[in-house]
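Figure 2 data, in text form.
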Amino acid sequence: MEITNKRILVLGGAGLVGMAICRRLLNESPDEIIIASLEEVEAHEACEALKKEHKGKTTITPEWGNIFVRDSLQNMSRSELIENPVNREIVINDVLGEMAENVLKASYLYQIVMRYRPHVVIDCINSATALAYQDVFNSYREVAKELDKVKSGVAETTHLVAEVEKLLCTLYVPQLIRHVQILYEGMRRVKAEFYFKIGTSGTGGMGLNIPYTHSEEKPSRVLLSKSSVAGAHSLLLFLMARTPDAPITKEIKPTAAIAWKRIVHGEIHKGRKPVQLYECLIENATKLDSILKLNDDSCARPIKNKVLESVFIDTGENGIFSNAEFEAITSSGQMEFITPEEIARSVVYELKGGNTGHDIINALDNATMGPTYRAGLLRQRALKRMQDLMKKHDCASIAFELLGPPRLSKLLFEGHLLKLAFKTMAGVRNATAAQMSENLEKVVLDNAKLRSEIISIGIPILLVNGKELLRGPNIKIPPYRGESELQITPGNINKWSSEGWIDLRTENMQLWKNRFDRIFEELSQHRDDNSSSQYDRDLSYWLEDNTINTGKVAGWILANEEKGARMKD
C-alpha cells in the first residue's frame, strides 16, 4: 500500500522497536503518526525526539494510557486496578462479561481508534508480557491460602472473595480475546486498511530449555504463559486475517533478543528505583541454624547515599543488561540478537507490498526472524563500548539480577571471582579445590565493593564452612512461595546454593575445575590442521582475552550443563 498521506497509529510507539518503525515510516511522508504509549512522559519524549530527527511535514501526535482497560481506568497502575474493589468489578465485567456496545465504547483502545481513524495500525506492544506477567500462579497461591483459612474456620470469606476477584482479573485468555475483539471492531468501523503486529515467541527463539526465565523456575510457568498468550494471539490474528471486513493483517515475531537503545555508565534501577547498596560484614554473617528468613534486615546495613552503578546496555522495554549478561545472552547458541532497525525495515517493506518471508500469519513455522549478520557485526562494537566504559569507570559489569534466573547471576559472579583469584582457566585447573575455596573467600572478604554489589542484588554468598551466609536484606533464592521462613537443612542448603547462591565450598570449586577440564578436553579434540567453520569455540575463542571470560563460560555452561542451547538459527 502507499504510505504517503496516510494516518498511522503506532501502539507502543515510544518503545525500542516502535521508535525504529516510526523513524522508518517518516521517510515515507505519512500525513500523521500517532505515538501511543503507556506513560504520558514517554509519549511526549518520543514525539519530541522524532520531530528533532525529522523535519518533514508529517504531524507527530502523542497519545498515552493503558489500552487493555476502559478509559476511566487507563492511567491507573496495576495495583490501583486490582486492589480497589470497585475497579476490580469494572475490570471483571469488561473482560468476562458480554461484549456489549457500552463495554466497547468505554474501551480506551476503541476510543483512540475512533478518534484518529487510522488507515494503518502498527502494534508494537508486548501484549503477551503485559498479560502473562500479571501472574495467575501467584494469584492462585493467595486464593489457596485464604481458602485454607476459611475451610479451617479461622477466617471469614471477606479476604477470600477479594483474592478470587483478583484471580479473575489475571486470567490471560479472556483479556486477550476481549482485546482482539475490541481491536477488530474498532478497525472495522473506521475501515482501517492494515494491521501489523510485532509479536513474540516469549523465549527469544529458544525452547523449553531456555536458561533465561526471569524467575527461579526452569522453564518458568509465567514465561510459558507468555509464550502461550503469544501463540494464542497469533492464532486470533490468523482468524482476523481470514475475516472479510477486517484490515489486511500481518505479524512479525522476532525470535532473538532485541537490542539496543544506548550503552552508558549509570545507576542500575529496579522498579524505577536505584538498587540500594548494602554491606554485610563477616561478623554479621547469617548463622545457618534452623530457620532461613527470606527477608531479614539484621545482617546487612544500607550504605548511605550509595546505589549500584555500573556499565549497562539498555534494550528498551526489555530492560538493561550488564556486560557479562549481554555477552552471555548473545553468545553463540544462546538467544543471540536482532536490531530494531531490521524489524522496522521488514515492517515497512511488508506495508508497501513487499514479501520478506517473515509474516507469521502466512507461515507460522518458517517466518521467524532469527539472529542476523548485522547484529553479529554490531555485537563486538557493543561489547567493546561497554568494556571501554568499564575501564574508564573502574567497574566490573557482571550481573544485575534483572535477566534471571538467579543461577545465571551466581554463575557469572563465581566465574568473575575465579578470574580475580586465578586469572586464567589454566590457573584454576592447576589449583586444588581447597585452594580455590580459600582464594575466592579471600577475594570476597577483601573486596568490599564487589561483595556489596553481589548481596545488594539479592545473591547471597555461602562461605567455605557452609554454615555462614553473607547476604542483603532480600535474597532471590529460595523464592517466596507463601512462606517467608523456611527450614534450613543440608539438602536445602545444597539446593539453594545450586539455584542462586555463590557457593565457596570445595564441592562447588571441584565442579568448576571439572568444567574447565571439559572445555580443554573439547579443545584437545580439535585438529590443528582444521581451519574450517566446523567448531563454534576453538582455541582463539577461549584464549583471545588471556583471562577467564565470564560471559563465554556462562554461555557454555548454559548450553552444555543446562541443555539450554537454541535448536534453530
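Caption note: Residues 221-241 form the longest helix (21 residues).
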